Amino acid sequence: MIRQQSVSNSLQNDPYRVRCNDKHHTFCVRFVKGSNIMTRKNFVSMILGAIGGVLFALGMCMGLLPQWHAFGWGVTTGVIGLMMLIAIPFVRRAMSGRPVFTPLRGRTVAVTALAVAGALVLGVGMCMTMIWDMLVPGVVVGLAGIVMLLALIPLCKGLKD
Fold it and tell me: Transmembrane stretches, by residue range (predicted)?
């Protein structure tokens, strides 16, 4: 036989608690308000990100694989996907009721420049490895790009004790 444990007063008065009683089990679960609901801006961001990512990846494949003979269409598809991905933060700000454009700060420009440089260095390392048959230098350059991208985490989130 399972012993039933008493529930503390804080949980008994909690409006987000769901209690289930049956003959064999008694349990309490606390839900955080709104934790299991997807907001409209998150749904729109998810859809834009998925479609934009697929279009960008497909465009890159079309443009970079010579067997497909679709360089022009690939560039067009990739640019459309990239524009959708770039639009996501602006759409989220507009749906949150905040101004879409804010004044640029030096920190924002520096973080963006580091992100672009890290992505480019990682891409050059991948090209050196896969296309130009320079395995060891390509891996070294690719790792340098990964380190640059990893440096974005403490720059954006900060370091705490």
Answer: 43-65, 71-91, 111-132, 138-156
17 plus 59 within the same structural domain: no
The whole-number pLDDT of residue 47 equals 96
Q: Which pLDDT belongs to residue 159?
A: 82
Handedness of CA 124, 120, 72, 60 (dihedral sign): positive
User: What rounded mean pLDDT belongs to the chain?
Assistant: 84
Q: Count the residues in the chain.
A: 161
Domain count, the chain: 3
Contact between 138 and 132 under an 8 Å Cβ cutoff? The reply is yes
Q: Where are the beta strands (DSSP E) in 49-149?
A: none
For residues 57 and 72, give the distance between their C-alpha atoms in angstroms, rounded to a whole number. 15
Mean pLDDT to the nearest integer, 39-47? 92
Q: Tally DSSP H helices, then E strands, for the chain.
A: 6, 2
| Beta pairing partners, 27 | 20
Radius of gyration of the chain (CA): 25
Domain shared by 97 and 43, yes or no: yes
Tokens of 24: 């064999």
The dihedral through the CA atoms of 130, 81, 45, 124 has a sign that is positive
